[in-house]
Amino acid sequence: MSWFRALKDTTRSGLTVERKRLEPLIALRGAAGLAIVVAISLAAFGPAVAAGSAFGAFQAAIATFQRSWRPRPELAIASGTSLGISTFLGYLTGSHLFLFVPLLALWTFLAGLGWAAGPTIGIIASSNVAMMLVTITLPTSIGEAAGHAAMMVFGGLVQATLVVLFPVRRWGAHRDALADALAAEADYARRLRHDPLAPFDPQPLMLARSAAALTPRQARNRPAQLHGARGLAERIRPVLASLADPAVGVPEEGVERDRVRELLAAAGSILDAAARAIRTGAPVRVPAPAVAALRTPDTGAILAGPPHRAATRLGSLLRDVLETAGEVDPVEPLWHRLPARLPGHLGARGTTAPGPVAEPPPALPRPTLLKLVPTAVRAIRKEARPGSPILRHATRVSAVAVVGYLIGNALPFGHGYWAPMAAVMVMRPDFSQTYSRAVARFGGTLVGVTVATAVVQLAHPGTWTSAALAVVCAALMYLLMRTGQLAAQACVSAYVVFLLGMGGQTWDQTVPERVVLTLAGGILAMLSYALYPAWETPRLRNRLAERLIAVGEYAATVVGHYAHPAGKSCPDVRAALLAARDAHIAWDLAATRARTEPVRHRGLSRAAADDAAHALHHLGRVAMLMEAHLPERDATPVPAAEELAEALRTATRDGARAIRERRVPRWKPVREALDAWDGDGVPDRVVRRGGGLLLEALDEVTEALDTDEPPMSVKPGPDD
């Protein structure tokens, strides 16, 4: 992509206003906390302290809006406290340039490294640095600076208290994550009716798993509907795929396929019902046609072998999902007719004994805020290495903050903090977000300052009126912040103008320099990424190799259990699957970022990368099908499967090395293992057919990377 097109796309992205579900009650709660803090501090201490405390309450409320599964009161307190500490330390050195500039560089560098611990920490840390640049100019003595810091902490406490006293959709984010996972499964089931090879995005399942990690206090108080359903959704997905896939299931047409379509439609309806119940907390309304489809007694006469086992397993899992989703609506008596296992032949319900209901798994542990510190330190140390995108971001943002601060002080505008504040607020570890946010911030600044200036010039508001207008602007920002950066930045700009106007600063002391210096800060941020980039495109080969290793390990682990049957519950398979999903998401994120970058990957075209990723998705899907039919503990072992598992590990690791070295991977060990199977004979239909499909998927990887571009070599590798 050329620089012109990249700038065009990022500009369009930054100026886009998206249609999102608004949350007015949460916005009102944040604005109420801000109003309480401003009113108390304004009445007790005056406009200067009120402005400082308002920044603390404002930032604490923003922290509660961040995408985090941690309790919101903790985020508000952490944000207000850290901003108070930053302000006090900044004031101690603010009057001495040779002391403040090193502190600013260090503080900004640490904030940049904070992105290694997650986006929530990164955003809060970056915002604290930006706010500090403004708040250190408000006090006039060390005592006042300590008072400002204390009021910022007080602002965080007020916001945290309001979250506790007036919860809005308590556990709402967790409910949405779990409901989205079940809804994604329902959509997948419906798509499989028409396309047996339909793809599935694992992002909703991974998001639900992230939401399931709870602190000890959360684990004690979580609703019953959040117990166990995520694990059931994880187990349903491979069952749905194996039921629909013609390779290990039923033919593509015929009475068996019609029956499978009925079961898939019923599964989609039941999963949707469970998702709605979990999202709203209401009783489950079980759809009668879906229950009737699952109760049809001729399933055993139509389906046989692996498809029948998958159908039986599906019925059992769907019943468990409904039991986990909560109390069933009493107007739906057909709930009691949903079998624990699908009938194997014509007969009464009692002919099939119900299977035991699995105990809900324990909550995944999430460390408390204090125990998170060692984890964050380890993550930062891991990224503090040459070539790390996070380290490059930290270096860029600290350099830009220092240069912007020096430029702002050198210019004759006054309020020189606008330039470094704008740069710190817009800079992110990746190219597209940095550039789009820079455009949005400047555009939003123009809109917000223009509107606020017009109000000030026409109405000449007093101290209390300016405070009220600032609270209104903050409420609009809380309401619209998810619709895009343009709307949010316009509200923030107006908020700052009114807040500083509350302290007696006239519009001509804040508006012109804010516009010019905001533009300067945005330009510095954009130039820094162009001069010291951290492009994702050159790392695509490594990402692809890492995904190949992860998917290959997952497939090998599944195949190995056919040689050593251990039943359906296999922790090593689960761990390998999660690693493969992490690699999948990392690849998708890298590929998405690379598409917006103005650089070209030499040796891996976009078409080749997409085709290789599609082949790896096929490889993972075949492994998932085989996982759905893992043998029970008392099943007959397939000794040859152990050789195939080892061949898969060896071949995929060697293939990953070949991709990194710009060679085309080959799969000789896998082919030899399957040839030996054909000679000895492998009676298990699923594992033999699955092994052939795994090799086909690996050959697709080779075909995708075997291009005519000079940087890719086709010379034989060590396995050829």
From TrEMBL:
It is found in: Membrane. It is a multi-pass membrane protein. It comes from the Bacteria. Its main location: membrane. Keywords: Membrane, Transmembrane, Transmembrane helix. GO terms for cellular component: membrane. The chain crosses the membrane at residues 30-63, 123-142, 148-168, 397-418, 438-456, 463-480, 486-503, 515-535. Residues 404-527 form the Integral membrane bound transporter domain. It holds the Pfam family FUSC_2. InterPro entries: Memb_transporter_dom. This is FUSC family protein. It comes from Streptomyces tabacisoli. The lineage of its organism: Bacteria, Bacillati, Actinomycetota, Actinomycetes, Kitasatosporales.
